[in-house]
Specification:
Layout lengths: L6 H20 L5 H8 L9 H24 L1 H20 L4 H29 L2 H32 L4 H20 L14 H13 L1 H31 L6 H26 L1 H27 L5 H31 L6 H25 L6 H29 L1
Helix pairs in contact: 1-5, 1-6, 1-7, 3-4, 3-5, 3-13, 4-5, 4-7, 5-13, 6-10, 6-12, 8-13, 9-12, 9-13, 9-14, 10-11, 10-12, 11-12, 11-14
């Protein structure tokens, strides 16, 4: 890396690019009731598609952002993505129907895939192994911290103006990060390592990535981890509002949860070198199976009138913390596990890994969100099944890793 940029500044820039994604999702959460009432009054539950449509676009865009960065360099693709993101955010601010807004959000996600997806390739260009996992942990810490203020900022903007003004905030934030990127980050892809963009090359990379047993398993587990997070994000505002009648304090509670959960990335950074990535992921998934089992039992008991509402709410907040905490302890590690054997095709591998995991997670999360029935029960059952499946797959992954090492 050029001496002009220190490791601290590099982490800060990569974290800001990652924060664009979290901001684009979490700042919208307080706006969902208004959007639903204005653009989908007959079915306000559809407003939560604002979250998953953005994620879908981001996942689809990630398929090509990495390969394009292998051809043209990391910076041009990241800056082009930022431009698309900014234009789509402006269009979204003018949308007069939910359908137009959802299309704009998909395109906004496509744009975000440039800075977000290629940033992981930039990290892989400069770091490897557990050192890369440590860098990713700090980036994920910001990803977890942004929700502490994003809903509150969204709430403030909505109270002063309206939900459309939130999109102007996205424009400004992305413009600042793009200028920082353009002026401070040197190109990290050596010209000798550039590849001509060919669809068959992407297909070959996908086959190679999905043919590697450890990489394949890590992608599936990463898909499940993302699905748990996206499912929670899709339904959480409605649960605070409808289940617990706490819509007015949602942003504050969400912020508290995010701050507590952000400690997971710091903990991961200190433990990953000693314990290894697979051990930490397996431990978190086991904990999630246990915690979510308890949440399901409490939810059914509360529905039957056997649990006071305050206790029910406290249990939900603790469970929400565990979901966010898990994200900080698993997603960065799983990305590092998947990318480690793929250094020779870092850009394409990063695209395939991230795209498959993200799109797969959206496919799992959308029906979970639409099943919302006024209680956390559908969400809890889905997350239990995903955590249990992830735990079984991690056991298989560790067995195969041990066999390969032997």
């Amino acid at each position: 890396m050029s001496n002009a940029m220190s490791r601290t500044e590099f982490i800060a820039l990569m974290a800001m690019l990652a924060a664009t994604v979290a901001l684009s999702i979490d700042a919208m959460l307080p706006a969902l009731p208004q959007i639903g009432a204005e653009l989908s009054p007959d079915n306000v539950n559809r407003a939560q598609l604002i979250v998953t449509s953005f994620v879908l676009g981001m996942g689809l865009g990630t398929f090509v952002s990495g390969p394009l960065s292998d051809t043209f360099g990391r910076k041009p693709v990241m800056l082009a993505g930022a431009a698309i993101y900014i234009v789509a955010a402006f269009v979204a601010s003018k949308a007069q129907s939910l359908e137009v807004l959802l299309v704009a959000r998909v395109v906004q996600g496509l744009g975000a895939s440039g800075p977000r997806g290629v940033a992981m390739a930039v990290v892989r260009d400069l770091y490897a192994g557990r050192g890369m996992a440590k860098i990713l942990s700090f980036i994920m810490m910001v990803f977890a911290l942004v929700p502490a203020i994003a809903p509150l900022l969204g709430d403030i903007v909505i109270d002063i103006w309206n939900w459309r003004a939130v999109f102007y905030g996205f424009v400004g934030f992305s413009a600042v990060s793009a200028i920082w990127l353009a002026t401070r980050l040197p190109e990290t892809l050596d010209p000798s390592n550039r590849r001509t963009f060919k669809p068959q090359a992407l297909r070959s990379a996908m086959i190679e990535v999905l043919s590697h047993p450890i990489v394949r398993l890590s992608i599936i587990v990463q898909t499940l981890s993302f699905a748990m997070l996206f499912s929670m994000l899709s339904s959480v505002q409605q649960i605070y509002d409808i289940t617990f009648g706490r819509a007015e304090s949602f942003a504050l509670w969400f912020g508290v949860v995010a701050v507590i959960a952000a400690s997971s990335s710091l903990l991961n950074a200190s433990l990953v070198v000693r314990l290894g990535m697979m051990v930490l992921v397996r431990g978190m998934l086991l904990a999630q199976v246990i915690i979510t089992s308890a949440m399901i039992a409490i939810s059914f008991a509360a529905k039957a009138g056997h649990v006071p509402n305050d206790v029910y709410f406290a249990a939900f907040v603790f469970w929400q913390v565990s979901i966010f905490f898990q994200a900080g302890m698993t997603i960065g590690n799983l990305a590092a596990i998947a990318q480690e054997p793929m250094g020779h095709i870092a850009g394409m591998a990063a695209s395939v890994i991230s795209a498959v995991a993200t799109v797969g997670a959206v496919i799992l999360a959308v029906p979970v969100g639409l099943l919302f029935d006024g209680t956390p029960i559908p969400l809890a059952i889905a997350i239990f099944l995903e955590a249990a499946a992830g735990l079984m797959l991690m056991r298989l992954m560790m067995q195969r890793d041990a066999a390969h090492a032997a």
